[in-house]
Amino acid sequence: MKPFDVYPLYPIEPVRGRGCHVYDKAGTEYLDLYGGHAVISIGHSHPHYVAALADQVSKLGFYSNSVQNSLQTKLADLLGKMSGYEEYSLFLCNSGAEANENAMKLASFHTGRSKILAFSKAFHGRTSGAVAATDNPKIVSPFNRTANVVFVPLNDIDAVRSELSHGDFAAVIIEGIQGVAGIHVPDDEFLVKLREETKRTGTMLILDEIQSGYGRTGRFFAHQYAGIRPDLITTAKGMGNGLPIGGVLISPEFEAVYGMLGTTFGGNHMACAAGIAVLEVMREEKLVDNALRVGEYLMAQLRTIPTAKDVRGRGLMIGFDVDGSGADLRRRLLFEKHIFTGGAGLSTIRLLPSLAITEEHADLFVNALKDLTL
Ligand SMILES: Cc1ncc(COP(=O)(O)O)c(C=O)c1O
Predict the structure, then answer these.
(1) What pLDDT is stored for residue 75 in this prediction?
(2) Are 168 and 116 in a shared domain?
(3) Which structural domain range is residue 339 located in?
């Protein structure tokens, strides 16, 4: 048997990681400004994280959700305090798509409605409901296609108003910052009005913070720039720094009923140990502040390069466009400069590094980009 060939692969195999770098078999060092797609939040193989996981697996790696697990309580408590959502509850699952799936299901249970409003170019994952709310027909199978999801343009409050006025939407789902689409920040004013409209029509507001959350933008969640409080917030990626874990933060208006949600692996001991270690490192090393500071520095530097067009984002969730093929430039950055970056569309470069990168790492990237494009 061999792996199902659905990923185009770079001919590189990282075998070791440390901080903001990964290394291949030959020991070549690569600067990681992609974080394995926004997953590496505190840095590769952080000593506190490694020790926490080693300790946990030596004690108990897994037991089911039919018994008490104080690691879940500790993780929820810490996440509540650090995110500013202490009165919310936490449902733990295994991935971003699964978090969105559960959030939409909760909104539907709660309202008794079946429709979801989503936005053009949105990406919410690849499971049935999540992919139906994803605006990319290429990855939506006939089985997933449904008339229950309606798309409207981002930042178009009139289109939102007109749809929600029918009173039959369970939820609106929106990314804190659109990531896969190429880093598009919703206007703060739009988010405030969206919150008002959803409240007025009894529609749940789901903030998908799977890519934009967990400190990446310089706030714990990107929507906090707009000062709104959603009904449901979904998170994954940086939450476990590589250990698969996702979560839904659920406002007190939702009533939990035994059996309404569930998962075998969600909230398991290893995932919780990883989640707790991530938050402890974020707090100790003030990584949210670092993301804001280094992100602003990096964006300011990029804006001085004429070949980096329309530099956009917040904190360390950064996008810019280039002339010609973004994929070609990313290959050159990787093979000639040993720097991992992300892409979007034909000509967008996306930077999603660990929240621990420094101004020196930012300078290295800016100089490499100048070298290759000026
Ligand atoms: C905004 C957003 N939502 C959901 C997902 C899906 O997460 P996962 O791949 O963990 O299912 C992603 C993944 O890229 C994402 O960026």
Answers:
(1) 98
(2) yes
(3) 27-42+285-373
Q: Looking at the structure, do residues 38 and 154 belong to the same domain, yes or no?
A: no
210 CA from centroid of ligand 1 (Å):
6
CA of 27 to the centre of ligand 1 (A): 31
Domain containing residue 346: CATH number: 3.90.1150.10
* Domain endpoint, select from 267, 284, 301: 284
Give domain status of residue 114, yes or no: yes
Local confidence band at 267 (pLDDT 50, 70, 90 cut-offs): very high
CB of 274 closer than 8 Å to CB of 50: no
The predicted model scores a pTM of 0.98
Q: Dump pLDDT digits (tens) for 37-77.
A: 999 999 999 999 999 999 999 999 999 999 999 999 999 99
pLDDT tens track for 269-302: 999 999 999 999 999 999 999 999 999 999 999 9
Q: How far is it, in rounded angstroms, from Cα 174 to Cα 205?
A: 8
Ligand 1 environment, Cβ below 6 A: 95-97, 100, 123-125, 175, 179-180, 208, 210-211, 236
- Closest CA relative to residue 365, chosen from 324, 323, 325, 311: 311
Last residue of a domain, one of 225, 256, 284: 284
pLDDT value at residue 263: 98
Do residues 243 and 342 both lie within one domain? no
Number of domains in the chain: 2
What is the whole-number distance in angstroms between the Cα of residue 255 and the centre of ligand 1? 26
Q: Average pLDDT of 326-348?
A: 98
Alpha-carbon distance 106 to 186, whole Å?
24
